[in-house]
Amino acid sequence: MDKEKDGVPISSLREITLLLRLRHPNIVELKEVVVGNHLESIFLVMGYCEQDLASLLENMPTPFSEAQVKCIVLQVLRGLHYLHRNFIIHRDLKVSNLLMTDKGCVKTADFGLARAYGIPVKPMTPKVVTLWYRAPELLLGSCTQTTSIDMWALGCVLAELLAHKPLLPGTSEIHQVDLIVQLLGTPSENIWPGFSELPLASQYSLRKQPYNNLKHKFPWLSEAGLRLLNLLFMYDPKKRATAGDCLESSYFKEKPLRESPRPSDSARRVVG
Length: 272
Prior knowledge:
Blueprint: H1 10-21, E1 30-35, E2 42-46, E3 51-52, H2 53-59, H3 66-85, E4 88-89, E5 98-100, E6 106-108, E7 115-116, H4 136-139, H5 148-163, H6 173-184, H7 214-217, H8 223-232, H9 243-247
Helix pairs in contact: 3-5
GO biological process, one term: regulation of mitotic cell cycle
GO cellular component, one term: nucleus
Keywords: ATP-binding, Kinase, Nucleotide-binding, Serine/threonine-protein kinase, Transferase
């Protein structure tokens, strides 16, 4: 970690403070903080996980099955539910920040952008969350951030695992907004009250696209699966599904039932 003038960077202290508060099987565990001879030499000792999902997706010979995807996403949801109940927004959920042990346990990692929040929610910078996973309200400049930005990112993760490739791989913020509109249709005040008043809304010339194309992207997905994706991809962050809502989704209770994603074990079993 880099030193900032008189001591440890505030961002590093914030991450350490958050991690010390967290204890959940689906959240990476901070074992200890080791300080070297100088303050710029600070090391976080974390619980060991053999791989991250991004590397697995890139290198595994066969993609995760839908049953394995359900198991992975359920574990991510349990971790998010714990974070959100403790008033913490991760703000950078993506496949490379999801770690997996050889036993198939999935843990959310990298809390460098995470923030504790209160009620009312204070303004925060919109320049968070990796572009492909960034919620539309952030792209349009909203400084009001809630747990709903994590849920949009979770929708992107779920879609990526199901499709075996990123859902919205934008190359710029303008391109990212256009990809979202192509997929979900053009937002309006009717479906997203306050949309036109967002700081950057007037700077985008949105294409006229009246249709939601999720069903065309995932023609094989069940009605329950499509319903879950649609709830995660609601334009209005107030209407977006919560982690608690998703944990109760019938998608996870219908066939194919969840199976262990353990890449090192050919024997599959149901996990928790």
